[in-house]
Every structure is written in C-alpha cells, then in structure tokens.
C-alpha cells in the first residue's frame, strides 16, 4: 500500500536531516525526544517566515532599518539636534548610527560606502565630487569668539557691539588645521585675505569645543559659525562682525541614487531635512 503524501514528506525530511522525528505505529504517531526538542525551533522559524512580508513592507516604507549619519562638529549647535528630533519622532524604530567627522573625511567615507549621509560644510568647489548629491540646509555668518573682557585697542564696546575683522587681525588666531578641515580653513583664511589681512595663527585644534575652550583660556580669538553662540562657555564672548563676511553653509550629502534608487530610510531623512531647510529659507524641493 502506498504511504499517504504527508507520511512520505515526513520520511523524506527525516532522511534529509538524518534524525528520526516521529514514532509511528498502526494506531498513533508521536514525536521522538529529538522531535520534541526541535518543534519549538520549527515554530519559531515558521513564525519568522510568516513575518517576512510585513517586514519587507515596513522596510519599503522606511519604518524600520538603519541609517548611518556623519556630521561636522559645528552642526552640533545648529541644525543637527532639530533634524534628529524630527527624524526620531517619525521613525522611532530606525537605528541611527552617528559619527562626528570633518567634511573631507565624510566625503571619502561616502564614496567608500562607509556611511549613508553626512552633514558637511560646503567646500569651496564648484560642485560636489562625482557621484554625490548635495542639499543646502542652513547658511550662517561668522562671529568672533573672544575672551571675556577683550576689546579692540583703544575701543570701548557695549556687550552686543560689532567689531571689524581688522580690529582683531593682530590677535592670535585659533583655527582648525587645514589637513583636518580644509573647507572651513579656506573660508577663514580667505576672509582675512579678502580684507587685505594675514592671520596670526597661534593654535590649531580639531574640535570646535576645544577651540572655544582655548579662547576661554586667553590663548587667542576664533572665527566660528553664529550657531556656536549656543555653546555657553565661561570666559567667552561672541561678537558680530561689521563686514559682510562669508557665510558658512552646512548641507546634507549622500551617494546619488539615480540609477539604483535611494533607500527608503535615507529618502525619508532627506525629505525631513528638506522641510527643515525650507523653513529656514535655504533649500528648494528635495532632489529625487
């Protein structure tokens, strides 16, 4: 007599894995000890398999997954906190992997596929490197960070007064080293050159917090983005500049997905960043 199809399938499974799972008699079928231990694992695998379509749909909507984001230290005090709050509110189950890095390091990491997106200071170049898309987010002026009580020679300033770069040109300057932050370094030194001045570079530091700390210690002055005024540090004052100085533009950069498409989680992040930039008047529609 031919075995029923189910019995044939069970027998084939046992032969494939090399383990007897059932004890069969004429009147009953029971699990062997090995079968009893294997059953919970089988149920778990089947449950996971049943959940796969729903997971795929959530991934396609950008509701789950991960996003690796790098950012320049200046973004800590400007757009980054608001951007992260909005993204977390919309995508609480997406895992964010954050990494602080200078702009040039981020561009290299993007080209290598090590990160998904970055917040960078726009380089002094006509365009981003080939293969990268860029969205301007916020543009802000420079301010002069000085030790408390600092005044230009022979001048008396009110607490909120502006100064000329020329009035501070003789002061020791604290700045990022060019090897670490070429975009920011070139903006600062270019500003001095435009005003016919030569900076007296006294100290270099690779963290904005360190630069401000050195100003507090009386080691010199620093030109920093206006958002750094949110960094309250004892012994430091921030003064506006009278000249129409350069603007520091911070933007979002990612690998151009024109051919393969942009991952849903990243697309949602770009859309949130675009909305935030439009509120600040910095961006047009999100690139597609």
TrEMBL record:
Domain HTH lysR-type: 1-32
A Pfam family the protein falls into: LysR_substrate
GO MF term list: DNA binding; DNA-binding transcription factor activity
Keywords: DNA-binding, Transcription, Transcription regulation
Record GO cellular component, one term: protein-DNA complex
PROSITE patterns: HTH_LYSR
UniProt keyword annotation of Lipid metabolism present: no
Highest taxon in the source lineage: Bacteria
Presence of keyword Disulfide bond: no
Family, similarity comment: Belongs to the LysR transcriptional regulatory family.
Protein name: Transcriptional regulator, LysR-family
